[in-house]
Amino acid sequence: MVSLVAAARTLPMMSPRRVVTVFQAENMLTPKRESDAAARAVDELLALIDAPDPQTTLVLVSAPLDKRTKVFKALGKGATVVECGAPEDVAAAVRWVKTKLEASGVDIDPTGARAMAVLAGFPERPRNDGKTGNVKRLRGEIDRLLLYTLGQKRITLDDVKEVAGPAALQDDWAMTNAIESGQAGEALRQLGLIFDAGAVPEKVLGQLAWLVRSKFPAIAPGEVAGAVEAVFRTDQDLKRSAGDPRVLLERLIVELCAGKRARAGVSRRW
């Protein structure tokens, strides 16, 4: 939040106006943890909304927000709120998925796109009560797919099955078990389920740090130093808010799974 306010207060260079865009702003506007630091950050944002810099345009791209919060009420008074809507059914969600992936230069099999829409809870037809699927989860699935299929021009149904999954988390240690087996897709899928269940990023990082500290010396001794460095870097990035926590942890998982290490015979922690 501090870096956002600083960017919004910075004078434009070689241009009459500075444009600052924040994607997935809901993570910043509605922090999951209550603390003095989070409260101060919100106050700084409210001050910015109340007295914006006349030479800066701030664009916040966010999932739906709780309209009862101070931040939303302040945005309603001091900003222009544009509601873009969301897919109402499976067919609309499929089109949404294809459009998002095409923007990244990637195509997807129709069956794969439909599977993603169904798993995200979109109904076959628009509901009379206005309820729809989970767009935030769908966006997260797209991010994981792009990471998992890096370099591919087409995503298949099999790719979707590897990464996407049902809403229920079956095993608290399924993510670390998948990393031990070098199964990046399954590990990313389990991370998504953990986040969907409301896990705190620092707790997830602690679980990954335990894996590196306790298991890697036996299953991948030549990779311990690199794994420890990756965990340390992720910890620093989380503390500095150097990226979306989910994306930072996804990157760490891919690094830990690199090389499809052979981890046969490693026992599960209960």
Model description:
The protein is mainly alpha-helical and 270 residues long. It has three domains: 2-78, 3-Layer(aba) Sandwich (Rossmann fold); 89-167, Helicase, Ruva Protein, domain 3 (Orthogonal Bundle), CATH 1.10.8.60; 173-264, Zinc Finger, Delta Prime, domain 3 (Up-down Bundle). Helix content is 55%, strand content 5%. It contains 14 helices and four strands. The longest helix has 16 residues, at 224-239.
Kindly provide the radius of gyration, computed on alpha-carbon positions and rounded to a whole number of angstroms.
21 Å
Helix content: 40-55%
CATH topology of the largest domain: Zinc Finger, Delta Prime, domain 3
State mean pLDDT (0 to 100 scale). 83
Distance between the termini: 39 Å
Counting DSSP H or I runs of 4 or more residues, the number of helices is: 14
Query: How does the helix and strand content classify structurally?
Result: mainly alpha
Total DSSP E strands: 4
DSSP strand (E) fraction? 5-15%
Which ranges are low-confidence, i.e. pLDDT below 50, for 5 or more consecutive residues? 261-270
> What is the CATH first-level class name of the largest domain?
Mainly Alpha
Principal-axis shape: globular
* Tally of domains: 3
CATH-level-2 architecture of the largest domain:
Up-down Bundle
H/E element string? HEHHEHHEHHEHHHHHHH
Keywords, please?
mainly alpha; two-stranded parallel ribbon; 55% helix; 3 domains; 270 residues; Zinc Finger, Delta Prime, domain 3; 14 helices; Rossmann fold; two-stranded parallel sheet; single chain; Helicase, Ruva Protein, domain 3; 5% strand; 4 strands
